[in-house]
Amino acid sequence: MIIEPSHFESLYPKETRKAEIAKIIEFVSSGKSCQVIGLPGTGKSNALRLLPYNRTVRELHLGKRESSYHFVYMDFSEVAKRSLSDILKFILISIASSFGERRLKEEESVVNKFLSDALKFSDEMVFSQNLKKAIDYLANECELNIVFLLDRFEEYVQNIDSSFFLNLKILRNRAKYRFTAVFGITRPIEEVLESSIYAEFSEFLIGNIVYLSLYDKVGLEFRFKHLEEISGKSADERIKSEIIKLTGGHGKLARICYEATLANSQQPTANSRLSEVLLLKPQVRSALSEIWNFLTPEEKKDIKANNKNEFLEKAGLTRDGKLVIPLFDTYLKTLTPTSPRLSYDQERNEILKGDQNLTEILSPQEFRLLRFLLQNQGRVCEKDEIISNVWKDTKTQEGVTDQALDQIIYRLRKKIEDDPNNPNSIQTIKGRGYKLTE
Predict the structure, then answer these.
(1) Other C-beta atoms lying within 10 Å of the C-beta of residue 154
(2) H or E segment and range at residue 279
(3) Is the Cβ–Cβ distance between 411 and 366 less than 8 Å?
(4) Looking at residue 37, what is its pLDDT?
(5) Are strands 318-319 and 145-151 parallel, antiparallel or unpaired?
(6) Do 342-436 and 8-211 have the same topology in CATH?
(7) How far apart are CA 331 and CA 313, in angstroms?
(8) What's the start-to-end Cα distance of the chain, in Å?
């Protein structure tokens, strides 16, 4: 009988994502936090989970220091709309369970005691105090380097405020270089959030970025082999090489394409065009659509015009303005040109542009601003009126300058306009305010 491992990531070869893991370790070893950024489907979560769940990966990168590092994985999509009190509780629970998974019973018992004491009160202040006690114990008494792995962080940004980063700074100040955080996110935090939100933690985080490449040869070879084992089928090397070429090695897309190929009773012949066969598969088109819907209007425009875009170049989707995924290029040619409109779904509290959900790429202030403009579409919204609706706190409102409002409008245009420098949606009405014209 085959016994499944508790974490699939433990099966990966130790050289998986070698370059990216090395950069992460370089940051955390020097007491710096960092961001791991990857396009949808590139395996960001998988890369982060290698650190707590694959000992051979840790030993390769940390050597004799492996036992002095403890990685705590947290999927923030599980608490995306929760209060700060719930977030602190979630972190404490995650720390305790992480020691249980590594069979470190003494540490697990101590952290569980802090957790159970906090649960008696279910108060934000108590959770914060007991989290500090846990970090004090682990970093100062156990002399462990604690690394928080905050995955899918983009799903939490809609509800975040400066208190979250202040709590991280407090933990960092207590544990010094023994405490770091690695954020798994689809875009740099400094592009998603206003600087006032992350200001308390910026010196330890901002600018420390690891971009995931689309193609990880070792990891993809492992996934292909695993698909062959569970399906009992295989394809010749020519087909596998062609799939990697067509997908640019993009992890999810290549895996889905190979899975679809193995599922076919008759594999493509030398005379058939593999790309045409693959684009008929709904699951392949869905993976391609996920990438397209992730992009901002400006990025989509740059792709169509073969213009260099800084983020797309760093994220690896383009090279010198040209797409590195031929199958994606072919897919885009099959799409019918549309003029998607902005809309607000009140029931789900989400902002859409056509079928694309913009909510995850908007900061809380950007979301409230765009929602207000949508609810007042077609009329001029005065600056004072906008400030009172976007910044709810009276004290905060008093400190908002015209320059601060203009900066948020600029950031918002970059996320929703095809050409932010020549906006069509958000119009500036000089001396008064702004108007949404769509």
Answers:
(1) 21
(2) none
(3) yes
(4) 98
(5) unpaired
(6) no
(7) 20
(8) 61
H-helix segments, 136-250: 162-175, 189-192, 195-198, 202-205, 217-231, 237-247
Instruction: Inform me whether the pLDDT recorded for 2 exceeds 50.
Output: no
Structure tokens at 35: 């961001």
pLDDT at 204 over 70: yes
Query: 45 exposed, middle or buried (CB, 10 Å; 0-12, 13-18, 19+)?
Result: middle
Beta bridge partners, 227, equal none
Q: Which amino acid is at 403?
A: Q
Strands of 21-113 (E only): list them. 34-37, 69-75
Cβ contact 383:403 at 8 Å: no
Q: Which residue has the higher pLDDT, 61 or 410?
A: 61
Q: How far apart are CA 256 and CA 284, in angstroms?
A: 6
- Please report which helix (H) or strand (E) contains residue 323, including its range: strand 322-323
Of residues 265 and 317, the one with the higher pLDDT is: 317
Q: Given CATH 3.30.1330.30, say whether it is the number of domain 342-436.
A: no
Structural contact between residues 110 and 35, judged by C-beta atoms closer than 8 angstroms:
no
Orientation angle between helical segments 105-119 and 84-101, nearest 10 degrees: 160
CA dist 214 and 316 (Å) reads: 6
Instruction: Give the burial class of 378: count Cβ atoms within 10 A of its Cβ; 0-12 exposed, 13-18 middle, 19 or more buried.
Output: exposed
Report in angstroms the alpha-carbon separations of 90 from 159, 183, 277, 345, 409. Answer: 15, 16, 45, 29, 34
Task: Look at the domain 8-211 and name its fold.
Answer: Rossmann fold (3.40.50)
Give Cα separations from 14 to 156, 177, 414 (angstroms).
Answer: 31, 26, 40
Alpha-carbon distance of 406 to 104, in angstroms, equals 52
pTM score of the predicted model: 0.90
Q: Where are the domains of the chain?
A: 8-211, 220-333, 342-436
The residues pairing with 351 across neighbouring beta strands, listed in sequence order, are 344
DSSP 215: B
> Side chain identity at 253, as an amino acid letter?
L
Q: Render pLDDT for 120-131 as a digit per residue (tens, 0 to 9).
A: 888 899 999 999
Q: Provide the residue type at 386 as one letter.
A: I
